[in-house]
Amino acid sequence: MLDWLLNKNSGAMSLSSGGYVKRALVLLVTFVLLYQVWIFLHICWWIKFNPHSSAFMEDRLEIIQEKKPDAELKYKWVDYAKISNNLKRAVVASEDAKFLDHEGFDWEGIQKAYEKNLKKGKIVAGGSTISQQLAKNLFLSTKRTPWRKAQEAVITVMLENILSKRRILEIYLNVIEWGNGVFGAEAAARHYYKTSAANLSAVQAAKLAVMIPNPRFYDAHNSTRYLNRRIATIQARMGMADVPR
Question: pLDDT tens across 66-114, in order?
Fold first, then answer.
C-alpha cells in the first residue's frame, strides 16, 4: 500500500513538473513572438517617421555617463537629400558594394570574411551588410551571442521587406557611430570638419566611411598609415558605387 502511494505521488509530481515546463515554454514562445511584433511595428512606423535613438546609442550613452553623468551624445537627424552623395557613395563602397543588389545578406561577402578569419585565426573581417549593421544598431545589445545573430537575421529580413533601400541607407547614415559619442552623418561632419553633411567633399566622405568599423579608435587616431591608404582605395571605388536616388 505504501509503495502504491509513493508511486502515485511520484507520478503526480512528474505530471506537475511537466506542466510547469510546458507553461514556461508557452510563455517563452509568446514573449519571443510579441518581441517580433514589437520590432515589426517599430519598423513600420519608421517608414514615415524617424528614429529618435537606437539600442546602440543608448548603450554608449550609458557607458559615457558612467564617467561623466551629464554627458550627451552628439546627434542630429538630417534627411537623405541633405546628405552629400559623396558620403553615400563612400559608405556603400566601403561597407556594402552590393547594397542595391542583395536582399539583406551578401553570401559571397560572408564566405570571404569566414575564409579570411579562418586563415588569420581570429576575426579580422566581417561580412555584414548595411542592413545587418542597421538591424544590430537599432535593436540589439553589443553582446555576441547565437541568439543575437539569429535575431539580427530576422530583423534584417524585416527591414528589407518593409523599408526601401533609400530609407534603409538614410536611417543607417543617421544612427551609426562615428566617434566617441558622435552619431550620424551630420554630427560627424560637424565634429571632424566643421561643416554640414550636405557639404562633405569626396576626401572627407571617404575618410568618414573608412572610420566606420572602428570609429572611437579613429576619433583619437585620425591619421594612421592604414587609414590614409584605405581612404585612397575608397575614393577610387566611389565612382562605381550605386546608391538609391
Answer: 999 999 999 999 999 999 999 999 999 999 999 999 998 888 877 776 6
- List the Cα angle 41/178/67 in 5-degree steps: 95
Show the cell assigned to 209: 566611411
Q: What is the DSSP letter of 80?
A: G
Helix axes 130-139 and 165-175, enclosed angle (nearest 10): 50
To the nearest 10 degrees (0 to 180), the angle between helices 2-45 and 130-139 is 120
What is the pTM assigned to this prediction? 0.86
Rounded to 5 degrees, what are φ and ψ at 75? -160, 130
Q: What is the pLDDT of residues 154-170, one digit of tens each?
A: 999 999 999 999 999 99
DSSP assignment of 142-205: S---HHHHHHHHHHHHHHHHHS-HHHHHHHHHHHSEEETTEESHHHHHHHHHSS-GGG--HHHH
The DSSP H or E segment spanning 75 is strand 74-75
Q: Say which residue the cell 514615415 belongs to.
A: 48
Burial of 128 (0-12, 13-18, 19+ CB in 10 A): buried
Q: Is pLDDT above 60 for 12?
A: no
Q: Which residues contact 97 (CB under 8 A, 6 or more apart)?
A: 237, 241
Distance CA 136, CA 55 (A): 8
